[in-house]
Amino acid sequence: MPSFSLATEPWIPVVTESGSELVSLSEALRPGVRDIASGRVLDDAAIRSVALAAVIAARRADADPVQWVLQHAEDFDIFHPQRPFWQNPDMAQYIDVEGAVRPLIDQDYAVDLGTGSAAVNMHHTHSGVTYTPAQSARLLVGRMLYSVGGIQQFPSSDSGPYGKGVASAIATVATNRPFVWLDTGDFAESLALNAELTRDHPAGTFHFGWPQTNPTPPVHDATPTGVLDALTWVGRSAFVVPGDPVTGIMLVDGLRWPEVKKSTISGRPYTAEDEGQLIPFTVYARKDGKTSNPLLPQSVHVERPPWRQLLSGLAGEQPEGSVLAAVQAGGLPPGTRIRIAGLASYQARRDGTVTGDLPVPVEDVDPAAVSAVIDSVLGAHGSDLNAIENTCARDENGNATRGESTARRNRLDQFRPLRDELHQLTRRALLGKLTQAEFSAAATAASENATTRSLAALRVTRPLHAARAERNIEYFRHQAREKAQQTKDKEPVA
Question: Which InterPro entries match (predicted)?
């Protein structure tokens, strides 16, 4: 029987002071490692989660993180005959069931991301591609934390190994909950800093594998009790077929994370306060900004720039003890970055991964004021685009051309380059390199320049519409300036 322990075998791509290396988990926790660098957003985030959980667990045991990992080397073995890491050994009995074992590449989100349902990926099903144990370990770790719901690639029938109940799954705990962490530029230091944020949170359980009390069927609700549960939750019942190379894997729904207002834990309703205590490494928000709505993790969306999601989180309310609450409180090491990563999805559809960062604001910089400027200038560019679209909604003869104008709007959309420019301006503002007035002026100019580019592109093919749209835009801007001045005039004099 082969053996491959994540604690001692090289499987984590990292950047060090001297270059790139492939290291074990215990080696990744030593000084000199800058960051995880697999080139895959979800794999990197999942590996960070496991490493962070190891550091938290070691601290709660008053142990050195490296030594703690090495002491659990057997528990981290993905090919252990009785207790394979993050797997359900009971599934081994179904290896010979037709359709139960799938090629690993068939379960690799990085290969076929964004094609829609997780059940539909037939490009590589019979390709014969195999994975090394290290690649298999990264896939297992990534899929355990990031898996969408929907129909699963596993036999489902009255006579199947798990019956019909496993045909549909729910998303795992990390999916659609962006992972947020603090980065100092040194991996071990970053882990220590993030672990320190959880000192007042319940520890919970570091899950090495499937609960032996309930091997079959795999799907069932469970009760998390601390931050370690969220970082190591066994969200899928999996079994990697041992070998070198590895040829297949079984993967179905696993432990289901409780839902606020829908689930119970320890005989009581699962609340938003529970979520805040168990998952401090994410962004929280109240739906529609209403104080009557609970403070819950904000989902991931590919059209929402990740840096803007971080900025909105810094500007708003966050649960006590969360990463962003720590940033709001101040006192973090100079040069620390706030980073975010996640998987945007809806049910079984995978829309894409997101990743981004912002610097920790310097003292005396108000993230809420910075965020308000960003909201204003993006809203202004959106209003300008609406004016262009409405102007182009009819031709010179007054005939409706709504479909054409919508398509033209998409071609003229300058949101992406504008967002990139605003990201850089936001970074400078948070670092105190721009005053609030300078930042507001630069951001407004960027928004107006984006509109100018849109009009210039329209002028090439529709000069009359461009001229009309320009007049409409100036009219609406004049109205907005007058309204802003009226509001300012009503403010009490200090």
Answer: CRISPR-assoc_prot_Cse1
Shared domain check, 260 and 113: yes
* Residue where a domain stops, chosen among 206, 241, 265: 265
pTM of the model: 0.91
Burial 173-193 (b: 16+ CB within 10 A, else e): bbbbbbbbbbbbebbbbbbbb
Number of domains in the chain: 2
- Residue 315 inside a domain? The answer is no
**Neighbour tally for 268: CB within 10 Å:** 8
Is 187 domain-assigned? yes
Tell whether 142 and 259 lie within a shared domain: yes
**Domain closes at, from 265, 286, 315:** 265
The parent domain of residue 138 ranges over 12-265
C-alpha to C-alpha distance for 377 and 233, rounded to whole angstroms:
41
260 and 372 fall within a common domain:
no
What's the rounded Cα separation, in Å, for the pair 241 and 92?
8
CA-to-CA separations, 32 to 27, 51, 329, 343, in angstroms, rounded: 10, 15, 29, 29
pLDDT by residue for the chain (494 residues), tens digit each?
A: 799 999 999 999 999 989 999 999 999 999 999 999 999 999 999 999 999 999 999 999 999 999 999 999 999 999 999 999 999 999 999 899 888 898 888 888 877 544 444 444 555 555 678 899 999 999 999 999 999 998 877 887 777 777 776 668 889 999 989 999 999 999 999 999 999 999 999 999 999 999 876 666 667 778 999 999 999 999 999 999 999 999 999 998 889 999 998 898 888 999 999 999 999 999 999 988 888 899 999 999 998 899 999 999 999 999 999 999 999 999 999 999 999 999 999 988 899 999 999 999 999 999 999 999 999 999 988 888 888 888 877 666 656 665 555 666 666 777 788 999 999 999 999 999 999 999 999 999 999 999 999 888 888 888 888 888 888 888 888 888 888 777 777 777 65
| Distance separating alpha carbons of residues 183 and 484, to the nearest angstrom | 39
Beta carbons within 8 Å of 449's beta carbon, 6+ residues apart? none
Let me know if residue 281 belongs to a domain. Answer: no
